[in-house]
Amino acid sequence: MAAIKVYGSPRCISTRRSWELLDGMGKQFDKIDLFEHLPPKWVLQKAVAADDVTASFNTRHRSWKQLRNRRFSKAQAVEYLLKHPEMIRRPLIVRNREVYQGYDEEDLRKFLK
Q1: What is the CATH number for 19?
Q2: H or E segment at 111?
Q3: Whole-angstrom Cα distance, residue 52 to residue 32?
Q4: Which residues form the domain of 52?
Q5: How many domains does the chain have?
Q6: Residue 58 near residue 86, CB atoms below 8 Å
Q7: 10 CB contacts (<8 Å, ≥6 apart)?
Q8: What pLDDT tens digit does each residue of the chain (113 aa) get?
Q9: pTM
């Protein structure tokens, strides 16, 4: 089991880009299909920012239109995402007890150093 875990979907371009970046950096990591194995609750609790819970939502999903005006507390957002993993912004990258969400190459490189 590698020290880095990437929760995502093979159909998600951001997930695939993160895999390519990790491979290119020579990092060992586990690919975890988000729809087969939910991330632990603590991972989502770290990923969801209290000041902007919607930043952890997949705003490209067709259900986002129904949710975008809804107000969530951090705890409500975490519970919602656990029940609706398709709405989790991908990828979720876990190293030790740190969590990075989404794909921005420069920020991800800093996270992985």
Answers
A1: 3.40.30.10
A2: helix 105-112
A3: 26
A4: 4-112
A5: 1
A6: yes
A7: 16, 31, 33
A8: 789 999 999 999 999 999 999 999 999 999 999 999 999 999 999 999 878 898 999 998 999 988 888 899 999 999 999 999 999 999 999 999 999 999 999 999 999 98
A9: 0.92
